[in-house]
Amino acid sequence: MVENVQELIEMQTNKESSGPRSLAGSFYEQYHPLEEIYSWINKICHEHPDMLEIILIGSSFEKRPLYVLKLTGRRNSPRRAMWIDCGIHSREWISPAFCIWFVQNAIDSYNKNPEITQMLDNMEIYVLPVMNADGYVYTWTTRRMWRKNRSRYEGNNCVGTDLNRNFDAGWCTKGASHDPCDNTYCGPYPESEPEVSAVAKFLREKKDSMKLYFTIHSYGQMLLFPYSYSYNQAPNHDELQNLANEATQKIRRYYRTRYSSGPGAPTIYLAPGGSDDWAYDLGIKYSFTIELRDTGRYGFLLPPQLIQPTCLEVLTAIKTITHHVIKNTE
After folding, report:
1. How far apart, in whole angstroms, are the C-alpha atoms of residue 176 and residue 174?
2. Bridge partner residues of 38 (DSSP)
């Protein structure tokens, strides 16, 4: 059990300065409510129009906009693309914090860090900082440990669908629930949720160029790949396992943090309807779920001073995997 819960929540929400007025380092070492994240999106895109573009892919159940940032280098448009989504589960605050940090770091490191420069020159990178906008707002205003979105359906007394059980990949088989009151409720049908439908539609439109998919979660310190809806091995299992091993070994070597790796179902549990399996079955043969820090000491209440170390180690994994994908795809 996590101790001092109220104290940790206060630590996560306490900020010396609010808003991205000065996008100094401290902004990226704090957690931010949705309106501050959306202000930051506007500000950073305005400051870097040569590298960033805002794309509205849809809206949430409560009609909040879902913004994707398209991030590229300053050279010719690459043929390949990759996707990163954050905040599919609203209580996992470190996840949107990573997406925000990743975009800023990529812009700062372009033409300075060769690995980041290679990534941006060879990949269009699409980043969705907060997929579950309604749930995220609810964790700031009402219930810090809320996981699902905030959709309501006639005849259901309970609110919310688990967005990571709502994709059309082994939908609502063992590991998901048909009960709307459960945390793993799969929704009334696949892609019933507007957030899932928006992401799926966008990725279908880009599937020919989309070579790499990351979905960022917490917690557990794991690098997972398909399948989660079944114990069957993915056709390129060995390649994915070797790649995940290489990435987690680098994290351990550079940062002394242990991440485990493997296919979702045998590594943690059966989880049907997940975005990573769906993306893989769509044809994105490099598809990963990254479970960020920690392993349970703080759980979802990771203190702000651990944002930067968490982001740095996960960037190591993303760079390792992206380099491999650039080398092995056209």
Report:
1. 6
2. none
Asked if 121 and 71 count as a contact pair (C-beta separation under 8 A), the reply is no
Q: Which of 92, 124, 195, 291 is catalytic?
A: 291
Angle at 285 (CA atoms; ends 166, 319), nearest 5 degrees = 100
Q: Is residue 210 a contact partner of residue 287, using CB atoms and an 8 Å limit? A: no
Judge whether 246 counts as a catalytic residue. Answer: no
Q: Yes or no: say if 28 and 307 are a contact pair by the CB < 8 Å rule.
A: yes
pLDDT, one tens digit per residue, over 239-278 is 999 999 999 999 999 999 999 999 999 999 999 999 999 9
Number of DSSP helices (H) and strands (E) in the chain, helices first? 10, 8
Helix (H) or strand (E) holding 114: helix 114-122
- Identify which of 282, 135, 276 has the alpha carbon closest to the alpha carbon of residue 204: 282
Residue identified by tokens 């351990």 is: 252
In Å, what is the CA distance from 16 to each residue of 29, 31, 32? 11, 12, 12
- In the chain the beta strands, taken as DSSP E runs, fall at 52-59, 65-71, 80-86, 123-128, 210-218, 222-225, 260-263, 286-292
CA 3 to chain centre: 26
Contact 123, 324 (CB under 8 A): no
The CB-side HSE value for 120 (13 A sphere, CA atoms) comes to 26
pTM for this predicted structure: 0.94
What are the tens digits of pLDDT across the range 61-81? 999 999 999 999 988 778 899
Quote the CA–CA distance of 36 and 87 in Å, as a whole number.
Answer: 15
User: What are the residue ranges in the chain where pLDDT is below 70?
Assistant: 1, 15-25
